[in-house]
């Protein structure tokens, strides 16, 4: 199929390298806000629908962080518990977690203060898939961020999840956490123009010498995907395959409609 479309690689995959990512307005804004949040040791909430590019934005961020000045830890576990969280942080720094949870919290506190005061590196902790968190894990965020009687912050905490996370944090019991969020950003889908540019960009990355998707096809992709990159990828990959099987060098609207009907 690659030869058929004269491609030098497979486009629309999740393995895209971070230097080949498409810089949409939303990705750029997310990157700028995340960078600011990290440099100012803020508590940041990044939300967006599934497939919108949240984890990609995080990937871009950590790629940019200079390892001399930053240490980051990425935790992606939809059933994260406070206990698992503290263990993960301690083990990341080669510390054996204590048996009792109160001791583990103390270890966490002194580790972070030590990094802050002695190591001169900024610590960034990112927790992804947070929309699945239990109430107790969400409540714990307050303690994860509480140092020296809540008077300072030795870390930047970035919590990532689907938009429902914002509503979860709006309940009365979690108001104290919601108030502490210093930076919020909700990602949105690509615009119609960006969807065009995104598809062109993906094909350029694999060095295709000519256009493959017709205008009508791109329009149909946008209408169906609402500019969500993962949905665009799925539609494009499957319609390329469909066109290849039928021996068409151009992906027209009919291929897109057939794929949509199968999804
Ligand atoms: N700027 C971009 N350039 C190229 N590809 C992108 C870009 N943003 C997202 N993608 C593609 O879309 C896919 C989905 O993005 P990502 O995994 O970041 O979404 P997500 O918001 O974290 O979704 P989920 O809520 O399901 O975890 C990625 O695998 C990647 O291939
Ligand atoms: Mg993700």
Automatic annotation (TrEMBL):
Q: Where does the AAA+ ATPase domain start and stop, copy by copy? A: 40-188
Q: Which Gene3D superfamilies has this protein been placed in?
A: P-loop containing nucleotide triphosphate hydrolases
Entries under InterPro entries matching the protein: AAA+_ATPase (IPR003593), AAA_22 (IPR049945), ExeA_AAA_ATPase_DNA-bind (IPR052026), P-loop_NTPase (IPR027417)
Report the coiled-coil segments: none
Q: Which SMART domains match?
A: AAA
Instruction: Please indicate which superkingdom the organism of origin belongs to.
Output: Bacteria
Against SUPFAM superfamilies, the record matches this protein to:
P-loop containing nucleoside triphosphate hydrolases
Query: Can you name this protein?
Result: ExeA family protein
């Amino acid at each position: 199929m690659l030869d058929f479309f004269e491609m030098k690689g497979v486009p629309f995959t999740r393995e895209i390298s971070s230097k080949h990512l498409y810089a949409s307005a939303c990705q750029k804004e997310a990157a700028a806000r995340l960078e600011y949040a990290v440099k100012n040791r803020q508590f940041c909430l990044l939300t967006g629908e599934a497939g919108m590019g949240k984890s990609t934005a995080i990937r871009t961020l950590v790629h940019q962080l200079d390892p001399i000045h930053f240490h980051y830890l990425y935790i992606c576990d939809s059933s994260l518990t406070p206990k698992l969280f503290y263990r993960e942080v301690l083990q990341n720094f080669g510390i054996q977690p204590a048996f009792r949870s109160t001791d583990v919290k103390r270890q966490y506190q002194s580790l972070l203060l030590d990094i802050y005061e002695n190591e001169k590196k900024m610590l960034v902790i990112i927790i992804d898939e947070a929309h699945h968190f239990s109430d107790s894990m969400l409540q714990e965020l307050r303690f994860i961020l509480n140092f020296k009687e809540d008077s300072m912050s030795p870390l930047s905490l970035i919590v990532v999840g689907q938009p429902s996370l914002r509503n979860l944090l709006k309940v009365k019991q979690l108001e104290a956490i919601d108030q502490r969020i210093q930076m919020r950003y909700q990602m949105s889908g690509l615009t119609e123009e960006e969807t065009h540019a995104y598809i062109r960009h993906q094909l350029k990355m694999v060095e295709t010498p000519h256009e493959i998707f017709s205008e009508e096809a791109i329009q149909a992709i946008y209408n169906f995907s609402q500019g969500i990159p993962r949905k665009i990828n799925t539609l494009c990959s499957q319609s390329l395959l469909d066109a290849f099987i039928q021996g068409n060098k151009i992906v027209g609207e009919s291929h897109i409609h057939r794929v949509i009907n199968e999804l």
